[in-house]
Amino acid sequence: MTSTKKNGAHMRETILQTAIELFTQRGYDATSLRNIAEAVGLTKSSLYHHFPRKEAIVEAVMAGQKQEIDDLLDWIDQQPDDGDLLLSAALHWVDTTGPRRLVGMRFARANQPLMHRLRHEGNDRSEWFTPVLERVLPGTPTSSEILLGRMTFDTGYVL
């Protein structure tokens, strides 16, 4: 990777991190591209080079979060189904939780109107775990088993 591309990737990551912090603190709707540009020391037009609109920042964040689910699915597919796959997968999910995922969780909680809007536009993060549950819950799970599965991923604990 050339130095220019490396610097561009670093700036893009800095913009993403700063934007998420601002969206979490102030709210998505109350944070402008100008606010983000100023916080990272760019002009608004320079910010447009990396993200042409505010929604593109959220899309990039969501893509990173979706990749974490895809990584979990890959991990699950490599595990033996020994009857404890739900717990093993949940513990793996908890063990791999890092600062980036926690920031994403805080962002989602702080911006419920945005998350609601995205859900109605067809980008429902809550459905991302459906394929995970389909892999770790045997047979055709009941509503109670699905709820228990979701709670297991939230806590790493199985009743």
Stretches where pLDDT falls below 50 for ≥5 residues?
none
Number of helices: 9
CATH top level assignment:
Mainly Alpha
Q: Radius of gyration, rounded?
A: 18 Å
**Helix content, binned percent:** over 70%
Identify the CATH architecture: Orthogonal Bundle
Q: Give the termini separation.
A: 49 Å
What gross morphology would you assign? elongated
Overall number of strands: 0
What is the typical, i.e. mean, pLDDT?
88
- How big a fraction of the residues is strand? under 5%
Find the CATH superfamily: Tetracycline Repressor, domain 2
Q: How many domains, as an integer?
A: 1
Instruction: Write the CATH fold name.
Output: Tetracycline Repressor, domain 2
Describe the biggest sheet? none
Q: SSE string, helix = H, strand = E?
A: HHHHHHHHH
Structural class: mainly alpha
Short description:
The chain is mainly alpha-helical.
